[in-house]
């Protein structure tokens, strides 16, 4: 029983990481109907930036928010420079552009930082704490806390502030929002900035676990896709719930299903994606959307 | 005789290109022939992907997985069951095609975006899926194939022309070229006739197409199957050329490479994939040779820049092409050519089979 | 100089031209009706003003040309446009919709007073504050749209067919409030209506559009009194 709990908590920690990246995907999907295939690579870049700051002597808890701010600015920049010129292009064009962006960022990271995996510092020690007979690592608990805090902040921002309101309005009803004086184009840019910052959290949380290198987010993004699809690609809450479910499921499958083991955990994510898309494409919390002709 | 003279210039161009490719190994060294063979391999896979994306409007980011399937099918049949490699090629293609067709069935239920997502996930998972049944696939080490010896008649024929007997690489090249010619011809016919028109109608607007009686489900799954068949044959030929298949030869970067080639060459065109394949294959190689010669790049990062360079270029190319030239090189050339003709003749040009990008809003 | 002036405005959608030279003016604090049959170009006229459609000619608000301005910037000058279909953000709650009306304003106490008045005019909105706007009936949505426009504290309101699809009693209530807003707060209104009689009752001036041009214009009471105009242009 103890071991089961340990695996669950570990899964919740992974889930927090997946949920953050999934939330980033949902934010952009809500704004543009687009899945940003570059979200993982953007997070990876931000993590490298954090790494650079930390190795230059900046303390972790200062580097963290500074990185988020840089990621925020970076997201806005990408939207203004790469996405806005082709706002009206067909969806597939935009998808291919995000793929190009992902490839470009991956290459840039490789060129600037090299491909040698590095260890990334974590403020949480790997020591375990004994709770009710089960051992939980500080790191898992730390990841859960930070992820929860970030997700809560995003929730408050979107639901309780005027800026959040205008962002949501611009995302769902662009034309009607313009008639209310909302600067829709800038709301879109803000959405990208916010998504980039949230994704960066995911990268910084996962780097101590899987080692920092340019390809590190390629598997995480798959888990995030699974989480977003499971929760319903338009639902921020769904991203969180989906993330938790995917995290726990993948962890338990890896631990208890012998044929899954460590390397086929990713295949579990793939199975989730395909299963959801075929059986219930709108996910747990999504709404059926009208098909635009 | 009159018909020959009235053939549009396009046909002559095709003839010239075919002759060029047939004669190529006679003037370049054997190793380079092997490289061109690999470029043709990519071109074949890209041709298949083009049918899927450009003509039936379904975006697959996982065709590297189909190439892997074709490559491993051939490798296993040749290595474990001692089948003649050439025989395995159509088998691998057919098997992959059938699986692709079956894939196409659930794919119908997915919107374009979800299909892209699911196939991308497939591409990322493919290496680990290959590693698992290690008994069959050789696991992490992969399968090594014996390079085929060219048959005597080929050696003699080549010696008659160039003075040296045909090498393995050159034989591989000709096998690949033969398949490429057949498959390109097939694709061209497909596109010209009813299936092609139906698929193009699909791409431009499914609701309208369905209203005009096109069997959407049928054509979409057919497109999936055909594109998978092409990728399977390409994978099989890839194994022939490289002599080796392993999980690491089919990473997600391969699927991106195919996409780049498709986009650069030009969606919904026949010559496009050929240009795309050549571009996608030779770019990393040329840049790897070029980068060390650039003295302004510090020595210690030459290898990382070499490794990263193609990625940066692919990424930039994808972005720039989709922004500025969504119809790829062929589109630019065709548009330029069309404009030139219009100015010279003052009459509208016949439809060239080139589809303009849709202007629906996202 | 009138608050809003349109001068020889031509507009259309792609190759189709809808307005062929429309000129009109809305004086400060007045209600002006824009009438005409379906397809005459009434909605297109409103859309031109707020930049929803490309136009040539000139449109001036408070003397300042609106050429090349983005919709949101035109609106920020002080024009509230309640479009055809009301533009309710159905993904949000009633309260959030209202909030979007007032979100640009900086005068806190005045905003609160305006909220009070809004709930006085439309009590049902207070009841349904926390509910999704999609749960409102047609009439209630029209009220929400009007309330939201009022909260923007505009100098000019563009109303596109406020009576469309609503029961007569509700229509009467809404038009009462339109009259009140205009009277108490001196908000100018350009009112597009199919129901000519209602529009002429509440407005001081009217323009009748026919196939993209102004066919008739004049003081509302004169037009109402003129039987031949009523018969040929207004349908009653």
Report how far apart the termini of chain A are. Answer: 53 Å
**Mean pLDDT of chain A, nearest integer?**
88
Task: Give me the number of helical elements of chain B.
Answer: 16
Tell me the radius of gyration of chain B. 21 Å
Oligomer: heterotrimer
| Terminal-residue CA separation of chain B | 51 Å
What count of domains describes the coordinates of chain B? 1
Please identify, by name, the CATH architecture of chain A. Answer: Orthogonal Bundle
Identify the overall geometry of chain A: globular
Q: How many individual β-strands of chain B?
A: 2
Fraction of residues in β-strands of chain A = under 5%
Q: Which structural class do the helices and strands of chain A define?
A: mainly alpha
- List the domain count of chain A as a whole number: 1
* Number of strand elements of chain A: 2
Helix content of chain B: over 70%
- Mean pLDDT rating of chain B: 79
Helix content of chain A: over 70%
Describe this structure in words.
- The complex is a heterotrimer of chains A (293), B (362) and C (236).
- In chain A, strands 1-2 form a two-stranded antiparallel sheet.
- By secondary structure, chain A is an all-alpha fold.
- Chain A starts with a helix and ends in a 14-residue tail after the last helix.
- Chain A is globular, with a radius of gyration of 19 Å.
- In chain A, 72% of the residues lie in helices and 3% in strands.
- The longest helix of chain A has 31 residues.
- Chain A has one domain: ABC transporter involved in vitamin B12 uptake, BtuC (Orthogonal Bundle), CATH 1.10.3470.
- Chain B has 362 residues and is mainly α.
- Chain B has one domain.
- Helix content of chain B is 74%, strand content 1%.
- Chain B is built from 16 helices and 2 strands.
- In chain B, strands 1-2 form a two-stranded antiparallel sheet.
- The longest helix of chain B has 27 residues.
- With 236 residues, chain C is of the alpha/beta class.
- Chain C has one domain: 3-Layer(aba) Sandwich (Rossmann fold), CATH 3.40.50.
- Chain C is built from 10 helices and 10 strands.
- The longest helix of chain C has 18 residues.
- Chain C starts with a strand and ends with a helix.
- Classes of the chains: A mainly alpha (293), B mainly alpha (362), C alpha/beta (236).
Provide key terms for this protein.
heterotrimer; A: 293 residues; mainly alpha; ABC transporter involved in vitamin B12 uptake, BtuC; two-stranded antiparallel ribbon; 2 strands; 3% strand; globular; B: 362 residues; two-stranded antiparallel sheet; 74% helix
């Amino acid at each position: 029983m103890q071991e089961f709990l340990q695996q669950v908590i570990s899964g919740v920690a992974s889930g927090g990481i997946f949920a953050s990246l999934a939330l980033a995907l949902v934010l952009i999907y809500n704004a543009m109907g687009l899945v940003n295939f570059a979200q993982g690579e953007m997070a990876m870049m931000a993590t490298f930036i954090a790494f650079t700051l930390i190795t230059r002597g900046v303390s972790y808890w200062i580097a963290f928010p500074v990185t988020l701010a840089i990621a925020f600015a970076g997201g806005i920049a990408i939207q203004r420079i790469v996405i806005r010129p082709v706002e009206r292009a067909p969806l597939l064009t935009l998808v291919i552009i995000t793929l190009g962006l992902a490839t470009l960022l991956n290459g840039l990271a490789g060129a600037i930082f090299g491909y040698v995996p590095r260890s990334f510092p974590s403020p949480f020690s790997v020591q375990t704490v004994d709770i009710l007979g089960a051992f939980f690592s500080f790191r898992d608990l730390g990841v859960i806390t930070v992820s929860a805090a970030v997700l809560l902040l995003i929730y408050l921002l979107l639901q309780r502030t005027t800026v959040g309101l205008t962002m949501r309005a611009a995302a769902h009803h662009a034309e009607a929002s313009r008639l209310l004086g909302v600067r829709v184009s800038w709301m879109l840019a803000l959405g990208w900035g916010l998504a980039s910052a949230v994704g960066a959290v995911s990268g910084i949380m996962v780097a101590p676990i899987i080692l920092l290198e340019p390809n590190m987010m390629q598997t995480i993004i798959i888990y995030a896709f699974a989480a977003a699809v499971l929760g319903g690609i338009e639902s921020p809450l769904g991203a969180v719930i989906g993330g938790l479910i995917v995290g726990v499921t993948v962890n338990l499958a890896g631990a208890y299903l012998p044929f899954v083991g460590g390397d086929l955990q990713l295949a579990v994510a793939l199975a989730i994606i395909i299963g959801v898309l075929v059986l219930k494409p709108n996910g747990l919390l999504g709404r059926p959307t009208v098909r635009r002709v | 005789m009159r018909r020959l003279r009235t053939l549009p210039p396009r046909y002559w161009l095709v003839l010239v290109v075919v002759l060029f490719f047939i004669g190529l190994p006679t003037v370049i060294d054997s190793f380079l022939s092997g490289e061109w063979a690999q470029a043709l391999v990519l071109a074949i896979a890209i041709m298949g992907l083009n049918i899927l994306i450009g003509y039936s409007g379904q975006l697959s980011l996982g065709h590297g997985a189909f190439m892997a399937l074709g490559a491993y099918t051939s490798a296993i049949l040749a290595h474990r069951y001692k089948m003649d490699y050439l025989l395995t090629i159509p088998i691998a293609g057919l098997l992959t095609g059938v699986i692709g067709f079956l894939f196409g069935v659930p794919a119908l239920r997915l919107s374009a975006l979800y299909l892209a997502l699911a196939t991308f996930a497939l591409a990322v998972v493919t290496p680990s899926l290959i590693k698992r049944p290690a008994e069959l696939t050789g696991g992490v080490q992969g399968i090594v194939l014996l390079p085929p010896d060219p048959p005597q008649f080929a050696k003699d024929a080549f010696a008659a022309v160039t003075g040296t007997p045909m090498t393995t690489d050159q034989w591989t090249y000709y096998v690949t070229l033969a398949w490429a010619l057949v498959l390109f011809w097939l694709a061209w016919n497909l596109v010209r006739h009813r299936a092609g028109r139906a698929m193009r109608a699909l791409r431009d607007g499914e609701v309208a197409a369905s209203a005009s009686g096109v069997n959407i489900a049928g054509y979409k799954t057919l497109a999936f199957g055909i594109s998978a068949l092409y990728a399977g044959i390409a994978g099989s030929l890839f194994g022939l050329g490289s002599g080796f298949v392993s999980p690491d030869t089919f990473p997600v970067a391969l699927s991106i490479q195919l996409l780049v080639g498709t986009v650069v060459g030009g969606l919904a065109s026949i010559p496009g994939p050929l240009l795309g394949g050549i571009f996608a294959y030779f770019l990393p190689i040329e840049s790897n040779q070029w980068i060390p010669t650039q003295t302004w790049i510090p020595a210690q990062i030459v290898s990382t820049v070499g490794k990263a360079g193609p990625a940066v270029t692919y990424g930039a190319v994808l972005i720039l092409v989709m922004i500025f030239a969504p119809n790829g090189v062929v589109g630019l050339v065709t548009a330029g050519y069309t404009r030139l003709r219009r100015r010279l003749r003052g009459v509208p040009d016949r439809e060239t089979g080139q589809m303009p990008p849709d202007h629906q809003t996202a | 100089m009138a608050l809003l002036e349109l001068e020889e405005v031509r507009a259309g959608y792609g190759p189709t031209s809808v307005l062929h030279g429309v000129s009109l003016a809305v004086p400060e604090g007045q209600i002006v009706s824009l009438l005409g049959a379906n397809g005459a170009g009434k909605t297109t006229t409103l859309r031109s003003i707020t930049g929803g459609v490309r136009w040539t000619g000139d449109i001036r608000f408070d003397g300042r040309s609106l050429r090349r301005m983005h919709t949101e910037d035109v609106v920020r000058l002080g024009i509230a446009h309640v479009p055809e279909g009301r533009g309710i953000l159905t993904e949000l709650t009633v309260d959030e919709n209202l909030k979007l009306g007032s979100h640009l304003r900086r005068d806190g106490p005045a905003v609160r007073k305006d909220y009070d008045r809004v709930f006085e005019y439309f009590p049902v909105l207070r009841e349904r504050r926390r509910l999704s706007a999609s749960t409102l009936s047609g009439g209630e949505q029209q009220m929400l749209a009007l309330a939201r426009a009022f909260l923007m504290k505009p100098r000019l309101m563009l109303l596109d067919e406020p009576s469309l699809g609503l029961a007569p009693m509700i229509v009467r209530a809404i038009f009462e409030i339109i009259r009140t807003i205009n009277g108490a707060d001196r908000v100018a209104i350009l009112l597009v209506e199919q129901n000519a009689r209602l529009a002429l009752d509440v407005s001081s001036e009217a323009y009748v559009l026919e196939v993209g041009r102004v066919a008739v214009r004049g003081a509302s009471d004169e037009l109402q009194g003129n039987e031949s105009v009523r018969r040929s242009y207004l349908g009653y």
